[in-house]
Amino acid sequence: MNSIKSIFKLLTIILMLNFTLTGCLTVSTVESGSSESTTNEPTQMATAFSDYSQVSTTYDSSYFYVSSDGIPDHQMMVGIVAWIAQVPVPHSYSGDNAWSIPLETAYSDSPLSIEDDFQRGALGIAVNGIPIFNPINASGLISKDIGELDEFGGHSGRGDDYHYHTAPIHLEESNTPTIIAYAFDGYPVYGTLEPDGSEMDTLDSYNGHEYSDGSYHYHGTTTYPFMLGAFRGTVNLEGTAPHTQVTPQSQAYPPRDGNPHAINSDLITGLTENATQDGYTLTYTYNGATGSVDYSWDIDNNFTYIFNDVDGSTTTEVFKRKN
Question: To pair with 299 at 20 to 30 A between CA atoms, which of 146, 150, 175, 193?
């Protein structure tokens, strides 16, 4: 009897130790899905991206890949009042670092909410090649509500990477049903119209619905959650909640390490590309005075930032991007 008790006690200790160690590890899981699965047709997916010259696409048996430099063909940054002193620079989202959309989709049995997860990385990719992040930022606040976003719903993150935090409804063609993005569970995101051109039908809690042919899609909306409230489909997940992300996930390689040059600002007023198309000038105001950041890069991945602060001082910093 004492021998049996000793064995039981040893097993209990082992199980408790295993639980403790597991709780300290980064989670990497795949959600279970229902039997309702579909397969995306890659040639049809490619059509959604075909209007944007800065975007290229390809695919294999598992994923549809979207390549871009992360710079849209619209004005960036103007109108931001809560700025973390980051600026948009090109990033090489291509090759092994292209954005990946699964070809096989399946409903999740336990859909994951954007309020509980996904405060790292992108939720999907817009058809102009710009990633779309959680509307809730890393501090747990809705970016749009606190003035972090420009008129297109985007800004530059800590990697000097431009991305959206709302649905890119501006990509919708006038009076035409338009796929404006793909979520990383493989389901498309339409603008305000259904695929047949009719007005948007009632949305479910995921910010989408099933269409008449049985397929599923999301819709971009002007109110929270903007693109999706939870992933209707299965996704690969890594990290510890709420700072988890979908995998595979493309990587932005920032030129600058650590905290950027400190800037106090009230409003970003302009972002203008230079004549040689290898940099920009960003202008801002603070207490009625105007400041600017002149920045550029060369073919060797050297990035030069010239900070013309509102107090009249000028600081130049040079960085070498390591990717």
Answer: 150
CB 233 within 8 A of CB 36: no
Domain presence at residue 274: yes
Q: Name which of 248, 254, 247, 249 is nearest 323 in CA terms.
A: 254
Is residue 213 domain-shared with residue 272, that is, in the same domain? Answer: no
Give the separation between CA 15 and CA 244, rounded to whole angstroms: 26
Do the beta carbons of residue 260 and residue 85 sit within 8 Å?
yes
Question: What's the CA gap between 140 and 116, in Å, rounded?
Answer: 10
Burial of 100 (0-12, 13-18, 19+ CB in 10 A): buried
- Distances in Å between the alpha carbon of 219 and those of 128, 148, 159, 314? 17, 23, 28, 46
pLDDT, tens digit (0-9, with 9 covering 90-100), for 85-138: 999 999 999 999 999 999 999 999 999 999 999 999 999 999 999 999 999 998
